[in-house]
Task: structure prediction
Amino acid sequence: MSVKPGRVTAYTLRAGYFVLGILMLVLAFIGALLPLMPTTIFLILAVWCFTRSSPRLETWVLNHPTFGPTLRAWRDQGAISMRAKAMALSGMAGGYVVFYLAASPGIWLALFVGLVIGGCAYYVGSRPLPSAPAPSDADRAAAPEKPAD
Result:
Protein backbone atom coordinates (compact mmCIF):
# COMPACT_ATOMS: atom_id res chain seq x y z
CA MET A 1 0.00 0.00 0.00
CA SER A 2 1.48 3.30 -1.04
CA VAL A 3 1.09 6.56 0.88
CA LYS A 4 0.34 9.73 -1.04
CA PRO A 5 3.12 12.29 -0.58
CA GLY A 6 0.61 15.12 -0.03
CA ARG A 7 -0.94 13.41 2.99
CA VAL A 8 2.40 12.78 4.65
CA THR A 9 3.44 16.37 4.01
CA ALA A 10 0.20 17.80 5.44
CA TYR A 11 0.45 15.60 8.54
CA THR A 12 4.13 16.46 9.03
CA LEU A 13 3.43 20.16 8.62
CA ARG A 14 0.57 20.04 11.12
CA ALA A 15 2.74 18.14 13.61
CA GLY A 16 5.52 20.69 13.11
CA TYR A 17 3.14 23.59 13.84
CA PHE A 18 1.92 21.75 16.94
CA VAL A 19 5.45 21.21 18.29
CA LEU A 20 6.37 24.81 17.48
CA GLY A 21 3.21 26.00 19.27
CA ILE A 22 4.13 24.02 22.39
CA LEU A 23 7.65 25.51 22.25
CA MET A 24 6.14 29.01 22.02
CA LEU A 25 3.97 28.26 25.09
CA VAL A 26 7.04 27.12 27.03
CA LEU A 27 8.92 30.29 26.04
CA ALA A 28 5.88 32.40 27.03
CA PHE A 29 5.80 30.68 30.42
CA ILE A 30 9.51 31.40 30.91
CA GLY A 31 8.88 35.00 29.81
CA ALA A 32 6.17 35.34 32.44
CA LEU A 33 8.76 34.43 35.09
CA LEU A 34 11.78 36.38 33.80
CA PRO A 35 11.59 40.18 33.87
CA LEU A 36 13.33 40.98 30.56
CA MET A 37 11.91 38.17 28.41
CA PRO A 38 8.65 38.91 26.58
CA THR A 39 5.53 36.79 27.03
CA THR A 40 2.86 38.12 24.69
CA ILE A 41 4.79 37.71 21.42
CA PHE A 42 5.34 34.03 22.20
CA LEU A 43 1.63 33.61 22.97
CA ILE A 44 0.72 35.32 19.69
CA LEU A 45 3.05 32.92 17.87
CA ALA A 46 1.58 29.95 19.79
CA VAL A 47 -1.95 30.93 18.72
CA TRP A 48 -0.74 31.26 15.12
CA CYS A 49 0.78 27.75 15.27
CA PHE A 50 -2.28 26.24 16.97
CA THR A 51 -4.57 27.83 14.36
CA ARG A 52 -2.78 25.59 11.86
CA SER A 53 -2.50 22.48 14.04
CA SER A 54 -4.84 22.27 17.05
CA PRO A 55 -8.12 24.20 17.25
CA ARG A 56 -8.59 22.89 20.80
CA LEU A 57 -5.34 24.44 22.04
CA GLU A 58 -6.00 27.61 20.05
CA THR A 59 -9.35 27.98 21.85
CA TRP A 60 -7.73 27.23 25.21
CA VAL A 61 -5.10 29.96 24.77
CA LEU A 62 -7.59 32.51 23.38
CA ASN A 63 -9.98 31.90 26.29
CA HIS A 64 -7.27 32.07 28.98
CA PRO A 65 -8.53 34.43 31.71
CA THR A 66 -5.31 36.46 31.88
CA PHE A 67 -3.92 36.45 28.33
CA GLY A 68 -7.04 35.75 26.26
CA PRO A 69 -8.42 39.31 25.97
CA THR A 70 -5.04 40.69 24.85
CA LEU A 71 -4.58 37.92 22.29
CA ARG A 72 -8.12 38.27 20.92
CA ALA A 73 -7.69 42.06 20.59
CA TRP A 74 -4.49 41.50 18.61
CA ARG A 75 -5.95 38.75 16.42
CA ASP A 76 -9.26 40.49 15.72
CA GLN A 77 -8.21 44.16 15.58
CA GLY A 78 -4.40 44.29 15.50
CA ALA A 79 -4.79 46.36 18.67
CA ILE A 80 -2.62 46.78 21.78
CA SER A 81 -3.98 48.18 25.04
CA MET A 82 -2.48 51.33 26.54
CA ARG A 83 -1.18 49.34 29.53
CA ALA A 84 0.51 46.79 27.26
CA LYS A 85 2.02 49.58 25.13
CA ALA A 86 3.41 51.29 28.22
CA MET A 87 4.90 48.03 29.49
CA ALA A 88 6.40 47.15 26.09
CA LEU A 89 7.89 50.59 25.52
CA SER A 90 9.27 50.73 29.06
CA GLY A 91 10.79 47.27 28.59
CA MET A 92 12.41 48.31 25.32
CA ALA A 93 13.85 51.47 26.84
CA GLY A 94 15.07 49.57 29.90
CA GLY A 95 16.55 46.85 27.72
CA TYR A 96 18.47 49.40 25.70
CA VAL A 97 19.84 51.06 28.85
CA VAL A 98 20.97 47.67 30.21
CA PHE A 99 22.54 46.81 26.84
CA TYR A 100 24.35 50.15 26.65
CA LEU A 101 25.67 50.05 30.21
CA ALA A 102 26.58 46.35 30.25
CA ALA A 103 28.08 46.00 26.77
CA SER A 104 29.69 49.45 26.37
CA PRO A 105 29.15 49.19 22.61
CA GLY A 106 30.89 51.28 19.99
CA ILE A 107 28.95 54.17 18.50
CA TRP A 108 27.85 52.27 15.36
CA LEU A 109 26.56 49.25 17.27
CA ALA A 110 24.80 51.50 19.80
CA LEU A 111 23.15 53.42 16.93
CA PHE A 112 22.17 50.24 15.09
CA VAL A 113 20.61 48.65 18.18
CA GLY A 114 18.92 51.96 19.03
CA LEU A 115 17.44 52.16 15.51
CA VAL A 116 16.15 48.58 15.66
CA ILE A 117 14.59 49.10 19.09
CA GLY A 118 13.26 52.49 17.98
CA GLY A 119 11.62 50.88 14.94
CA CYS A 120 10.01 48.24 17.14
CA ALA A 121 8.87 50.92 19.58
CA TYR A 122 7.34 52.91 16.72
CA TYR A 123 5.46 49.84 15.53
CA VAL A 124 4.08 49.08 19.01
CA GLY A 125 3.15 52.72 19.60
CA SER A 126 1.39 53.01 16.24
CA ARG A 127 -0.96 50.05 16.81
CA PRO A 128 -4.56 51.08 17.56
CA LEU A 129 -6.17 50.72 20.95
CA PRO A 130 -8.81 47.98 21.29
CA SER A 131 -12.24 49.36 20.41
CA ALA A 132 -14.06 47.06 22.84
CA PRO A 133 -13.14 43.98 24.82
CA ALA A 134 -13.24 41.06 22.45
CA PRO A 135 -15.69 38.44 23.74
CA SER A 136 -14.37 34.94 24.20
CA ASP A 137 -15.96 31.91 22.56
CA ALA A 138 -17.31 30.93 25.98
CA ASP A 139 -18.88 34.40 26.41
CA ARG A 140 -20.52 34.14 22.99
CA ALA A 141 -21.89 30.67 23.73
CA ALA A 142 -23.28 31.71 27.13
CA ALA A 143 -24.88 34.95 25.92
CA PRO A 144 -28.61 34.74 25.31
CA GLU A 145 -29.76 35.49 21.80
CA LYS A 146 -31.32 38.91 21.30
CA PRO A 147 -34.95 38.74 20.14
CA ALA A 148 -35.64 40.15 16.70
CA ASP A 149 -37.66 43.38 16.65
